[in-house]
## 1
Amino acid sequence: MERNTRRNFIRKLGATVGAAGVVGGTSILSSCNSVETSSGDKIKLLTSSGELVEVDKSQLTPAEMPNLSENQTRGREGLPGRSWVMVIDLSKCRNARECMKACQNHHQLRPEQHHINVLQMQDAEHTAPYYMPKPCQHCDNPPCTKVCPVNATFKRNDGIVLIDNERCIGCRFCIAACPYSARVFNWFEPRDAEKYKGVTYNIEANVPQKKGTISKCLFSADRLRDGKLPSCVSACPNGVYWFGDRNEDAVTNGTTKETVSFSKLIKDNAAYTLMEELGTKPRVYYLPPKDRAFPFEGELIEHHS
Ligand code: SF4
Ligand code: SF4
């Protein structure tokens, strides 16, 4: 029996729409003279050929949705009562890249793939350069989840934005929508594909990775469930990362293990969020690179616009 996946649902819909289009020309509804009760309630749908069509709700028969596994259901809800936040202290990052390595190992990423990247930054011509780690910002108003046609990417109650690669059809709308370039596409077979063949998919770690789908930072949702800090936070040797729960107003430093008030930390240090003007409401806060703990090393790469 054919698996009733979301992908098949879209494919079947595409076939139906295509047939109607041949008969009726411009509009599907105008081609259907059997429409006796039009609800007037229109819905937009994406066909398998990437066409956006509008149909009356009365013309649709709800498809049977695949049952979500326990892991998928649990992963969609998140940890009750939690509201996760990250604070990144730019005065402490020295480009050690241990966060990147730990993340790549945790999420079985290929060497060229990053959920978190350490960027070289310089705000103006005569100001000092600094390093800026940049993961997914876990926006409270995420543009990425709104464009996904199959509800593969979503925001859960505890603030984490995840991806369900059992549902992702690889359309990459979410990549186009993310202003932080936080998402990566699995163009090739994932690292160690043979080794992880047959391993049950874990939605909170997004492993095993799957060719033709999306991956990105997940705040190590699986580790949080186990009471651990995210991989990048634990791996940093320089005290750059604070992570914790906004509801508890507490964040813990991954290196020193010190726990402090989140609101005080961001207020006392004039923290900011990236591209605030877009209204995406990121959950990643940056402490400005003042009183730097080290000299900037390496050569600043020049970018030309
Ligand atoms: S940073 Fe990009 S991928 Fe992450 S939640 Fe925001 S829009 Fe989505
Ligand atoms: S590529 Fe992005 S938008 Fe498209 S189905 Fe996958 S998660 Fe959704």
Note: The chain has nine helices and 13 strands.
## 2
Amino acid sequence: MTTRLAGVDFPNPVFTASGCAAAGWELDQFFDVTLLGGVVTKSIMKVPRSGRATPRMAETPSGMLNSIGLQGPGIDAFLDNDLAWLASRGARAVVSIAGGSVEDYAVLARRLRGSPAVSMIEVNISCPNVEDRGQVFACDPQAASAVVEAVRWNTPEATPVFAKLSPDVTDITAVARACVEAGADGLSVINTLLGMVIDTTTMRPALAGVTGGLSGPAIRPVAVRCVWQVHAALPDVPILGMGGIRTGLDALEFLLAGASAVSVGTTVFGDPTAPLRVLAELERALADRGIARLSDVVGLAHRAPEPSVPEAHDPPGDDPPGDGAPGDDPPGGLPASRGFADAYEEQT
Ligand SMILES: Cc1cc2nc3c(=O)[nH]c(=O)nc-3n(C[C@H](O)[C@H](O)[C@H](O)COP(=O)(O)O)c2cc1C
């Protein structure tokens, strides 16, 4: 079940999500990571970084809040260890990069330029956990555009550049459009939502960093809405969709909304085999629906429904009014068969 993202073929549409499976080493203990569509690595920065103070994880009723703060080994160690390992395993590496300035991103893109192991670059412009919220490039179309342009300029044409968007904006399509105009070949939708938990025992914020990124099943409807909106606005732009995917049917929902592939993130912490299970469940769900090609399902929910055959009914006025028989038209002209919800929807 191959999928094509910006001219590059991937063997299937299920990837890991950045930050939830490092570079895949740990997952490889549970299953062969080369069976995945791609391994999206933790966002890498120019220099090693220890991240934010602990505690930096908090549970919520249907997901979690994290404020890791882009902890990582820096690009040099990443190239020598993580990327080298992914290449040796034959996995398709989608390298996520993050920076504090446009120049940081340009430098990272240049460092990756020589590596044939890079199948795709995901530009994380949307991490909510950097210390200065002013640095969330994805919250401003112009800032997002500047970063994407710098990365695209420094990346070989054959390597797709995807920009990872934040849902924490008024109009995600404005940022999506700015990224595409700046040269993004595709969009990753979505990163975490900025959230907060207060511990009622200590009566203080649960995270040392006060706010964090909300992920997991709680954000799935938001993510599906974002994928839907971006696909509706830019139907030719490939989308890597993510946000609370736990099952194959969840993944199918993203494809129907317009994603061409999906990333599985938070679920992996509780079930390391989740990406492969999601893939198997998705394949079964598509087969059950008689869908042979993945491209047939991408964005399908946007298409107009098949016209339904109208039910046969008596022409209005043929029966005596008020006898309760089928065909009675209630005052206001609504057919008797229509429910309150239909009537409400029609009037609002
Ligand atoms: C612990 C943790 C760390 C994350 N780190 C990154 C990161 O480094 N770069 C990034 O682009 N997204 C990062 N994310 C966001 C995920 O890649 C994903 O977009 C988000 O969690 C929504 O998907 P999910 O609900 O399946 O986890 C992180 C998420 C979590 C939970």
Note: The CA atoms of residues 55 and 327 lie 65 Å apart.
